[in-house]
Amino acid sequence: MRELCRRHDPRVVAGWNLILGSLAMMPFGAAALKELDFQRVTTAAWIGLFWMAAITSVVMNLLWTILLRHLQPVQVTICMNAQPPATAALQVALQAQPLLFGIAFNAEPLGLRFFVGMALVLCGVVFVNWRRGPQVTVSADESRAPPPSSTAGR
């Protein structure tokens, strides 16, 4: 995937990623959508759906492809841990303003499990990034290069 992101525009890769993912999920979600009564869906639920589609899917997927072009896959995965705090920030904002633009939001309270989970994720990020000493990385181009000639010093 990293090479694909390097060869093509990140927007194109992210777009195809979302299209193919949507097509793969259609057989599973189509039946539920067919039975859904759209009249009963609240405005707050539509805004939450928009947030999930726009921010946690489109923006984060685009960010993933851009970062994958420039960073190692492990580093990109660590950066993607921004999704839970972004969602928590939205929830805190909604709890602080229960009536926003005339729309009532009833956000679930952030409990102990949420904060313990967030702490575990942050500990995992620190653990993965912990370096015991200088590390040498070899790029893909350098790993294909022939070894230096032994006749160079003669």
Model description:
This protein has helices at 2-7, 10-35, 43-70, 73-79, 83-96, 112-129, 140-144; strands at residues 99-100, 103-104. The longest helix has 28 residues, at 43-70. The protein has a two-stranded antiparallel sheet. It has one domain (2-130). With 154 residues, the chain is mostly helical. 68% of the residues lie in helices and 3% in strands. Helix 2 (10-35) runs antiparallel to helix 3 (43-70).
Taken as a percent bin, the fraction of beta residues is under 5%
Task: Specify Rg, calculated over alpha carbons.
Answer: 22 Å
> Which structural class is indicated by helix and strand composition?
mainly alpha
In whole angstroms, the N-to-C terminal distance is 44 Å
In short:
The chain is mostly helical. Helix content is 68%, strand content 3%.
Which features does this protein show?
154 residues, mainly alpha, 2 strands, globular
Secondary structure elements and their pairing?
Blueprint: H1 2-7, H2 10-35, H3 43-70, H4 73-79, H5 83-96, E1 99-100, E2 103-104, H6 112-129, H7 140-144
Antiparallel strand pairs: 1-2
Helix pairs in contact: 2-3
